[in-house]
Design goal:
By secondary structure, this protein is an alpha/beta fold. It is built from three helices and eight strands. It comes from Salegentibacter chungangensis.
């Protein structure tokens, strides 16, 4: 058994696609229409194209409990998920220059360094570097 797909709720799939590809550097893997303006839209790491896909899921637009949960996590400052990076400080600098807003600057916490940013689609995302 292995993980092949993880979904993240987004309120606007096109905006999410732009953010995840143009700012974070992911690449689009699948883009299939589902009807009603929704798409099966996934991105993957450019450095691990056969790795897990990230589904940009429009659930908050159609399923109220998803929106409530997403809003609660965002308000509490809790990340929806995390992405591992080689160097959190370098990614922080790169993303800040691209206009990405961070709620937590690079901070050492025991054996990791973390930073948290807003993906502009309703989620906090945590970057993690193992020290």
């Amino acid at each position: 058994m292995k993980v092949t797909l993880i979904s993240i709720p987004v309120r606007d799939q096109e905006k999410a696609l732009r953010f995840y590809t143009e700012k974070l550097g992911f690449i689009k893997k699948k883009d299939e229409p589902l009807g009603g303006g929704n798409r099966w839209l996934t991105v993957v790491s450019k450095d691990w194209q056969d790795g897990p896909e990230l589904l940009l899921e429009p659930a908050p637009n159609h399923f109220k409990p998803s929106k409530v949960y997403q809003d609660a996590l965002l308000e509490a400052g809790i990340p929806w998920t995390q992405f591992d990076v080689q160097d959190v400080s370098s990614e922080y600098d790169r993303l800040t220059k691209l206009g990405v807003e961070f709620s937590m600057k690079p901070t050492e916490m025991g054996t990791v360094k973390v930073a948290v940013f807003n993906d502009t689609c309703g989620n906090n995302i945590q970057l993690v570097e193992e020290l």
